[in-house]
Automatic annotation (TrEMBL):
<protein>
    <recommendedName>
        <fullName>Pyridoxal phosphate homeostasis protein</fullName>
    </recommendedName>
</protein>
<dbReference type="InterPro" id="IPR011078">
    <property type="entry name" value="PyrdxlP_homeostasis"/>
</dbReference>
<comment type="function">
    <text>Pyridoxal 5'-phosphate (PLP)-binding protein, which is involved in PLP homeostasis.</text>
</comment>
<dbReference type="Pfam" id="PF01168">
    <property type="entry name" value="Ala_racemase_N"/>
</dbReference>
<dbReference type="InterPro" id="IPR001608">
    <property type="entry name" value="Ala_racemase_N"/>
</dbReference>
<dbReference type="InterPro" id="IPR029066">
    <property type="entry name" value="PLP-binding_barrel"/>
</dbReference>
<comment type="similarity">
    <text>Belongs to the pyridoxal phosphate-binding protein YggS/PROSC family.</text>
</comment>
<feature type="domain" description="Alanine racemase N-terminal">
    <location>
        <begin position="8"/>
        <end position="228"/>
    </location>
</feature>
<feature type="modified residue" description="N6-(pyridoxal phosphate)lysine">
    <location>
        <position position="35"/>
    </location>
</feature>
<keyword id="KW-0663">Pyridoxal phosphate</keyword>
Length: 230
């Protein structure tokens, strides 16, 4: 498996999908999802032309962050984040993608304040309302984001979702359309401590459809690193 070839292929596909939506590849952030992948392979992804790495588990995040500290990497916490683990990544994460309850937001705000930083976060939605996935329901997001906007040490940078898995990604196009509508509605609200820049949606199986529907941040693991052995 040649990581560089995989990355070039992904970037080519991202570029084509961006064109369909009237944008360019510069408008899309590609995050290499390096969960379960060793630091050396993650390093190869950065050397292959990517600058963003996404991790699902805090311990893995911290281990790789330390091992690759000499590289210019933007680190993303994309997995479910437990309140008691926030302190380990608060000063390391470029963006926390998975804020979906007030207790977690409260802890992030507290830890960010202690570190004298403003933590950038995304609000996670569960559009498909799957029991197996985290995230808040579409109808609750407006009240939730109003609450989070009251925290001065959090900057809400946008929204994130994981679409239900479908063999044919056309089946989940509606999820991405709905996310874009919600994103647009929140932009109009002009809340404080909110700077709606990112719509993080789309993974290996469905990122092209997500980009066509307005995603500007995709999280790609399998198509870069191959299938994982859990």
């Amino acid at each position: 498996m040649n990581l560089k070839d995989n990355i070039d292929n992904i970037l080519n596909r991202v570029e084509q999908a961006a064109k369909i939506s009237g944008r360019s590849i510069e408008d899309i952030t590609v995050i290499a999802v390096s969960k379960t992948v060793d630091a050396e392979k993650a390093k190869q992804a950065i050397e292959g032309g990517l600058s963003n790495l996404g991790e699902n588990k805090v311990q893995e995040f911290v281990n790789k962050y330390e091992q690759l500290s000499d590289m210019n990497i933007k680190w993303h916490m994309i997995g479910h984040l437990q309140k008691n683990k926030v302190k380990y990544i608060i000063d390391k994460a470029e963006l926390i993608h998975s804020v979906e309850n007030i207790d977690l937001a409260n802890e992030i705000n507290k830890r960010a304040k202690q570190n004298e930083i403003v933590s950038k976060v995304l609000i996670e939605l569960n559009i498909g309302e799957e029991d197996s996935k985290f995230g808040i329901n579409a109808e609750n997001v407006y009240d939730f984001i109003k609450e989070v906007s009251k925290y001065d040490n959090i900057m809400v940078m946008g929204l994130m979702t994981v679409a239900p898995y479908a063999e044919d990604p056309e089946e989940v196009r509606w999820v991405f359309k709905k996310m874009k509508d919600i994103y647009n509605n929140i932009c109009k609200m002009q809340l404080k401590n909110t700077d709606m820049k990112y719509l993080s949606m789309g993974m290996t199986n469905d990122f092209e459809i997500a980009i066509e529907e307005g995603s500007n941040m995709v999280r790609i693991g399998t198509a870069i690193f191959g299938s994982r052995n859990y």
